[in-house]
């Protein structure tokens, strides 16, 4: 019986130590989450049939417009106008060649704190830019 009591005390002590150890990192993670931007997107464009063509990738932050996206302010403005809904981006119109050189446009990340993703295949880069404005102009 004495052995069982000692074992119980040891288990209770281990539980308390483990709970304390878990609570501190959880608080640190919550603090780190609060410091992250609520709008952060990884934007990429890749040519489908051309493996020798490197894919283009950029980070886009839209709270303080920035990241590695070359037209961050314009891209954020385009996305704000549609509340981050890539499918609602207005087609700019204009003329594109009928060249078939497919590209895949992908975006993953967070818009206003909510998870978002987008993937679409376009017949060529001109059609992509016409349909998405400056968002995929990377």
TrEMBL record:
Signal peptide region: 1-28
One Pfam family hit: SSI
Principal location listed in the UniProt entry: secreted
SUPFAM superfamilies named among the record's database cross-references: Subtilisin inhibitor
UniProt KW keywords: Disulfide bond, Protease inhibitor, Secreted, Serine protease inhibitor, Signal
Subtilisin inhibitor domain boundaries: 50-124
Gene3D superfamilies: Subtilisin inhibitor-like
Domain of life: Bacteria
Cellular location(s): Secreted
Subunit composition and interactions: Homodimer.
Family the UniProt entry places it in: Belongs to the protease inhibitor I16 (SSI) family.
Protein's UniProt name: Subtilisin inhibitor domain-containing protein
Gene source species: Actinoplanes campanulatus
């Amino acid at each position: 019986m004495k052995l069982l009591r000692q074992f119980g005390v040891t288990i209770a002590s281990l539980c308390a130590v483990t709970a304390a150890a878990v609570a501190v990192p959880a608080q640190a993670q919550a603090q780190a989450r609060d410091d992250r931007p609520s709008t952060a997107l990884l934007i990429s464009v890749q040519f489908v049939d051309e493996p020798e063509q490197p894919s283009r990738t950029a980070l886009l932050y839209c709270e303080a417009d920035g990241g590695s996206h070359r037209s961050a302010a314009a891209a954020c403005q385009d996305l704000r106008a549609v509340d981050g809904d890539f499918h609602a981006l207005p087609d700019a119109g204009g003329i594109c060649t009928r060249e078939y050189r497919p590209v895949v446009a992908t975006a993953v990340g967070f818009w206003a704190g909510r998870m978002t993703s987008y993937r679409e295949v376009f017949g060529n880069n001109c059609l992509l830019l016409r349909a998405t404005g400056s968002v995929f102009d990377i």
